[in-house]
Prior knowledge:
Blueprint: H1 2-9, E1 11-19, E2 30-35, E3 38-44, E4 50-55, E5 58-65, E6 72-78, E7 82-89, H2 93-102, E8 106-108, E9 113-115, H3 119-123, H4 128-135, E10 140-143, E11 148-151, E12 158-161, E13 164-165, H5 168-172, E14 179-185, E15 198-203, E16 208-215, E17 228-236, E18 239-247
Parallel strand pairs: 1-7, 12-15
Antiparallel strand pairs: 1-4, 2-3, 2-5, 5-6, 8-9, 9-14, 10-11, 12-13, 14-15, 16-17, 17-18
Amino acid sequence: MICAVSMAANNKVSGVIKDAADKTALIGVNVSLKQGDQQVSGTVTDAHGKFSLEAETGEFVLECSYIGYEPIGMSLIVSGSTNLGTIEMNEASTELSEVVVEGDAVIQKVDRQILLPNKEQLGASSDGMSLLQNLQIPRIVVNQADNSVKTLSNDDVQLRINGIEATTAEVMAINPKDVIRIEYHDQPGVRYNGAAAVIDYIVRHHDTGGSLMLNASNGVTIPGWGEYYLSGKLHFGKSSLSLLSQYSPRDIYWTRTNTEA
């Protein structure tokens, strides 16, 4: 029984994503497997447009999203390793026109990139982590299943808020509307203790007021299992008081019966 569970969890769903017009590989496409509203696995395409995801046996929806292209969603029944072959994405003329008009959504500096979230990205985000997912930064993988942020080579990404190193829970406590810009260092060097990459949220400070946020998206579909985050912040003058709480229940019971004759 244990062997069967292990084999089911090692099913591979793979493929390659290309531009439908010129057939070139698309790098950094966000690919995820979902069951309902729950993301169970996620990755981005590599330098050759290829992706690979792990999944248990069952029914899923494969979603592919990329800035400037129409999103794709397809239903899958996974019962073993599956190669989907080539998936083609079509350009979205409306999204491309927005990028051209804004022009300064990404500002390239010598040592970093400055990303300015637009209204659509801010409106579609519930916290700092989902905003990062919606920005679709090349070579950055945001796994909504466990709220981890890694590079394509699976190295940890250092998170910061206004230049100060922060935890995942602190990033999830950010109100997207407070984000002024995000600074992305893809080659941070020794200044950041040898981190593979650094993402720094520059957020505005409020003199008065506060906020309260609850994130239970990773646990509502499976009672007794998931990641739950509760955060609150109160501002007064130049100071602020923060409360961060994380609850990670793992409520699985195993039963084994042995019969001997």
